[in-house]
Design goal:
With 88 residues, the chain is mainly alpha-helical. Helix content is 51%, strand content 0%. The chain is built from four helices and no strands. The radius of gyration is 19 Å and the shape is elongated.
Length: 88
């Protein structure tokens, strides 16, 4: 496949790097250890079932959803810089 200045396998290398970055980002967001009984944002009680299901939980469902939405808005740009991603 002719890719201009890019070397053979450059596209796959970029895909692999993007996936590795995503995995690394997800792993840094995982919590460990005992969770909180009350949300650190709003103070609402965190149900026992949620604390068992999510190790290290620190937010209630409502605050976690708001946090996830804010993170999604901030994470939509490919900083590796292919021309196609910059034209969007």
């Amino acid at each position: 496949m002719a890719t201009g200045w890019a070397g053979d396998g450059a596209v796959q290398d970029q895909i692999d790097a993007t996936i590795k970055d995503g995995i690394k980002r997800a792993r840094t967001q995982l919590r460990a250890g005992p969770g909180l009984k009350h949300c650190e944002e709003c103070g609402a009680r965190i149900p026992e079932a949620r604390r068992k299901a999510v190790p290290g939980v620190r937010l209630c469902v409502a605050c976690q959803e708001a946090s996830d939405q804010a993170a999604r808005k901030a994470a939509g740009f490919n900083r590796r810089g292919s021309k196609d991603s910059q034209l969007r």
